[in-house]
Design goal:
The chain has six helices and 51 strands. It is mainly beta.
Length: 775
């Protein structure tokens, strides 16, 4: 009997061990890749349906879970991919890889939440729009080019820069107030052919995300938006080729493995050939003209080991416009970057990015008596470090820093001969821009999600050179000289970020955000989109950092499994806004600060979007009601005035109908209020020459704009190793003569009268393109 207590103790221990064994957690991990290309799917969402819990795969496509023994339904989703549901039986530690298929009809973003049925409405993202290239390529094209900027302009709150222009006005901001990223590297001039096309080759682009508000803390440096463009990476399993032949340009993309399943390459090129056609003209004044642009993207991906991935990317793009030997304009971007993604543990990862960016342009004018040359350039060296720490399924922290060294040549004007202009050597500018940030995403309750962020940015103006002080009349009152590397002035700014979402029910939520953004690189221009004559200037003793505070509030509802409604409102106030003095001479002034005035701005509006994202018929309707104004002492009698991009109404209707697996039809209709312009209110004559008198700035309007584009995409062949398709588009299908510009002149019949002359560009513009792929 003395063994009875021992037996009872032993039995208790056995039962305890059995219980521990029953509660044991097993590791389930693996990679998420695409089915066709076997490349990693970044930031995929993995939801365990039975547990109503989600995690996000890291930037290497890797996920890791701890689960008790049992059977679970894994639901995996990502932007532009079909959702995959798969039942997994967990009995031991195991590795399970998932392959996702592309979803060509996917128009809306896939977002993350703790409940599979709530994910479209529960996250804190507000003011964010996403498009994938499958959608863009089904829309009507211009000259056969499927341009991502023209697709983005169809989204609410994003205005175009006029007829066929690629400039972007986001929630009342200027075209220079958008951070445009190509794989984490900023692009200063994202336009080709004077704004008709963007620098982004559609065959090299993976997807696009636009942040109009609620910008995560890792982004900064610009006031209005972030346009984050992710470029494709090469196929790690097999060699493929794809091409596109259009009316004015052609593209070719090659990709494949360097070491199968471990490393890959991608090379994509695009070039116009209008200049080649001009050479066949017997007229030498035409055959010597130049009109072309080219793009070249290259990318190398190396999966060094399960915890490290190295990405090397490069881009070169250039435009040239020449009229014989008389006038020549060339401009372009050169970008190179190296990125290392490292996994310290299942919950802690980092991304390190080093980059070089060089933007330059050159203008030449030659006559029989003189030569004029104007050059500008920006060179950036930058280092960016991001860390992601997944504390648990409901809490994550992202933090890091960014450092940029700017070398800016605002312009150099060389003159020889008898020109009225004087040679000007604009002083080269040097600056150091640095920022640290931290952000915390928290699921506070089942219904409330919160995102907190804080960014501290510093901008130091460096010597060598002069620092000017200018009075209210534009006169230089003081000049100080600084040695090379000497700190002239430093601006420090805190940029808080806050976003929340509250789930009203499984189908709807309200969301809100507040953020402050600061901008220290300023484009001095009077054009509606990037032009070679634009001057980029860093903040200086007189040009202070632009600051914008924006509050947004929205209602989001899933009307059905494929139909979403979004209603958002915003109010934005801006400090240190820049505009020109009346009669400013930007081209011949060696001290640009003497030509500028500074004040404040405001923008507010309402955006409504209805999206159908699945089925044979997909598309969206967007409507924007908005106002954007500035108030600057010295302009418009110190009263508020409309900015050029102010538009009261902006409507876009987009539809894509897949008639069959081989034929797809699409149509786009746009309407918006005419841009604000300054029209003359009177004139006077002096020595027989007429001079116009202007009163209130931007008090008049261009005619209202509307246009219909249609297209058809026909799949010609689809075999195991080859596919091809034909796209036919008609831009401005009902032939409306929209105003591209309005000029004013004396009436030929009565010189005492002034008449407005409208210039229109495109009427009934057909396009055709042929696409092919060797798979």
């Amino acid at each position: 009997m003395i063994f009875a207590p021992f037996k009872l103790t032993l039995l208790a221990l056995l039962l305890f061990c059995l219980n521990v064994s029953a509660q044991q957690l097993y590791h389930v991990s693996g990679n998420i890749r695409t089915t066709k290309t076997a490349i990693a799917v970044n930031d995929a969402n993995i939801t365990i349906v039975e547990l109503k819990q989600s995690i996000i795969a890291d930037s290497l496509g890797f996920y890791n879970l701890k689960l008790k023994a049992g059977s679970y339904t894994f639901s995996i989703s990502a932007v532009g991919m079909k959702t995959l549901d798969k039942v997994v039986k967990v009995t031991a530690d195991q590795t399970i890889d998932f392959n996702l298929e592309e979803n060509p009809n996917h128009l809306n973003e896939i977002v993350v939440s703790t409940d599979q049925q709530k994910r479209d409405v529960a996250n804190t993202e507000i003011g964010i729009e996403r498009l994938n290239m499958q959608t863009v390529k089904k829309l009507p094209s211009m000259f056969g080019e499927h341009d991502i900027f023209k697709a983005i302009q169809l989204l609410p709150g994003i205005n175009s820069a006029g007829e066929a222009g690629n400039g972007l006005y986001v929630r009342g901001g200027g075209s220079d107030q958008n951070l445009i990223l190509m794989d984490e590297v900023p692009i200063y001039n994202a336009s080709h052919l004077m704004g008709f096309f963007s620098t982004f080759n559609s065959d090299a682009v993976k997807d696009i995300t636009v942040y109009k508000s609620g910008m995560p803390a890792q982004y900064g440096g610009y006031l209005s938006s972030v346009l984050d463009v992710k470029m494709n990476q090469g196929n790690v399993s097999k060699l493929t080729a794809a091409g596109d032949i259009g009316l004015v340009s052609s593209k070719l993309t090659l990709q494949g493995p360097i070491q199968k399943e471990k490393s890959s390459f991608l090379i994509s090129g695009r070039r116009t050939y209008i200049d080649a056609l001009l050479k066949f003209s017997p007229d030498k004044s035409i055959s010597k003209n130049a009109l072309y642009f080219y793009d070249l993207n290259a990318k190398l991906d190396f999966q060094l080991n399960p915890n490290n991935k190295l990405i090397i990317a490069a881009y070169s793009g250039s435009d040239k416009l020449g009229l014989s030997d008389v006038f020549n304009v060339s401009w372009g971007n050169t970008v190179a970057s190296m990125q290392l993604k490292h996994r310290f543990s299942d919950r802690f990862t980092s991304t390190t990015t080093g980059s070089f960016n060089n933007y330059k342009n050159n203008i030449e004018l030659n006559t029989t008596t003189n030569h004029l040359g104007f050059n500008t350039q920006i060179r950036d060296l930058s280092l960016k470090q991001d860390f992601l720490w997944l504390l648990n399924a409901k809490n994550s922290i992202k933090f890091g820093f960014k450092s940029v060294y700017h070398t800016v040549t605002p312009g150099q004007l060389d003159i020889t001969g008898t020109s009225n202009y004087n040679p000007v050597d604009y002083q080269q500018k040097y600056a150091s821009e640095n920022a640290i940030y931290a952000a915390n995403n928290i699921q506070a309750t089942d219904n409330l999600n919160i995102s907190l962020g804080l960014r501290l940015s510093g901008f130091s103006i460096l010597g060598s050179g002069n620092s000017l002080t200018v009075d209210e009349e534009g006169n230089i009152t003081d000049v100080k000289n600084f040695q090379k590397g000497q700190v002239v002035k430093t601006y420090l700014n805190l940029e808080p970020r806050l976003a929340f979402s509250y789930l009203l029910n499984p189908q709807s939520s309200i969301k809100g955000s507040y953020e402050r953004n600061v901008q220290n690189m300023h484009m001095i221009s009077n054009s509606t989109s990037s032009r070679p004559t634009d001057k980029w200037m860093p903040s200086s003793n007189m040009i202070k950092p632009e600051i914008a505070d924006q509050i947004s509030l929205g209602y989001f509802r899933n009307l059905s499994s494929s139909l979403d409604l979004t209603v958002e409102s915003y109010y934005k106030v801006m400090q240190n806004q820049i505009d020109y003095r009346d009669g400013a001479d930007l081209f011949n002034a060696d001290a640009i600060e003497t030509q500028l005035l500074y004040g404040k701005g405001r923008a507010y509006g309402l955006e409504i979007s209805l999206k159908k994202k699945a089925g044979a018929f997909t598309g969206w309707i967007s409507y924007t009601l908005a106002k954007s104004e500035r108030q600057i002492n010295g302009i418009n009698d110190d009263n508020w005035y409309n900015v050029r991009q102010d538009r009261t109404h902006d409507v876009s209707i987009v539809g894509v109908y897949d008639i069959s697996k081989k034929l797809s039809l699409s149509a786009v209709w746009v309407y918006y209020t005419g841009d604000a312009i300054t029209a003359p209110t009177g004139k006077y004559k002096l020595d027989g020459q007429s001079f116009y008198y202007y009163s209130n700035r931007n008090a008049d309007r261009m005619p209202n704009y509307h246009r219909l584009d249609i297209s058809a995409t026909l799949q010609l062949k689809k075999k195991k190793t080859f596919s091809s398709e034909l796209n036919l588009s008609l831009y401005n299908a009902y032939g409306r003569k929209n105003a591209y510009s309005i000029t004013f002149r004396e009436s030929e019949q009565d010189s005492s009268k002034t008449e407005a002359v409208k210039t229109s560009l495109f009427q009934f513009l057909p396009s055709v393109s042929y696409c092919f792929k060797f798979i």
